[in-house]
């Protein structure tokens, strides 16, 4: 075997294209680094852009803003050289990623049950969606919103309680990033509440809007995160040396104008072209069929406790930014009432970083949808993507409180 072929096999194996042995993260640590200088910021950005050995759980923002980086055990001495440079405040934020994974879910569970005490598989979620059609035949219909590279259906439901709300359609997406399990759990819990809750405010928003819920936008990656690699983020489309593109950098609105990588091994690889991923292409085609009727588009991600406003390609306050911000502040206040959870509100670029090619940007830019928010759900890093299942219901409860505020406040704006 020549050197190039050996190198190719090594890289492909590390990306889990070959074999199906479950990836473990024993002794992997998450470090929180806070750069002290502009030079330190640039050094971290260069490390993120050029080195796929380190997994940046949060992106580099600027001086004084913490960055969470997962480091493999065999890299810890090399990483200590970075820490010891004196350019960063540093702490070990998660001492053993595998320990969190092992304790993320209940020790015993009833397979096939969707009750929000545990995270569910794709098959469990889809079977539950199908069951809703039988249980609520007058209100719920199954929709096929797209198809993935591995030929999985991207399923959702349309929920209608009253006629005449077509131009007040709310679309909720989640799990476009595979490892963000809390996002689809929150989506399905909110869907269940709209069907079952007797709360006056919940009934008001349920009955005065049409709804689309698509819990898993990235089914191939989501399945892979359950069966093989809990920390998988991207799609599973094979590219040279590595698998997958970031499906939230792959949408055709200001595609690849910042915040995405051209390296297929990067977690933020945007793909070779807009809508190169079958999932994003077919989802965009489905959304286009209802786009002119969209009153609201809500995307759930994790983590960081943020409510993000368009756009990801620019820090300019465009379109109805001020209304989105003002209502977002009120929604964040509502969200904090039950458990004291604090969310920041603002433009994607200002709060995080440039991130072009996202789904919310595409919807906002294409259809001028008035209500557009991307949530980064719990937490702020103590568990990160591995949020314990006992936080599903509290996270979902507070998120629904904020969604009620958003829709009711925008109704007031419309009336004025």
UniProtKB/TrEMBL annotation:
Keyword Signal on entry: yes
Any one annotated GO CC term: extracellular space
GO molecular function: metallocarboxypeptidase activity; zinc ion binding
Signal peptide: 1-19
Protein name as it appears in the record: Zinc carboxypeptidase A 1
Alphabetical UniProt keywords: Carboxypeptidase, Disulfide bond, Hydrolase, Metal-binding, Metalloprotease, Protease, Secreted, Signal, Zinc
Domain Peptidase M14, chain residue ranges per copy: 118-410
Obligatory cofactor(s): Zn(2+)
A Gene Ontology biological process term: proteolysis
